[in-house]
Amino acid sequence: MDEIAAEIHWKSLCLALPPNGVAKTFRTEEECVRRLVEVRFPHGVTCPKCEASEVSPLSTRQFYHCKKCRCQFSARQGTVFERSNLPLRIWFLGTEIAINAHAAKKLRISYSISSVMRRLSVARGTAVRLRTVIADDLLQDRGGILGRCVAFQHIDFPETVESGTFEHLSWLDAAIERRRHL
């Protein structure tokens, strides 16, 4: 990804963040889980093993049971969250921090290990892992699973501006600046 494409990627994600912030949009872990399920299974929950849609939620945990192959699975399975005990809300908040830091090109200040530790109230090792996994996922198409979970606002991009150009980048800068002054 060249420099302009990278800037466009990060600033597009930044502009797609909820205007009132991730913390106010996703106040509870349940709201985060609901959002993950919407993103992970846009056409309804299906079994990752046999792809059947005959699944039922298990009431005691955040798992589903496939009625066809009888396997149990969660929305976290097969994602960056799969082997993490961290609440999804921490992942979502960390994603917002990463997007804003990359878009503003202030990685040393607002996306340092100590900053992530302090802002998310996590241990150093957790902060290091979060930074790495979040950044890697956000570089995927459409921002990966994390980007699709938190950066979901529609951007009304003008048809007169050619995508991927310096003019596109300038338009994003102006749109982000307008949003800050609202």
TrEMBL record:
InterPro entries: Transposase_Zn_ribbon (IPR024442)
Transposase zinc-ribbon domain ranges (all copies): 28-71
A Pfam family this chain is assigned to: Zn_ribbon_IS1595
Name of the featured protein: Transposase zinc-ribbon domain-containing protein
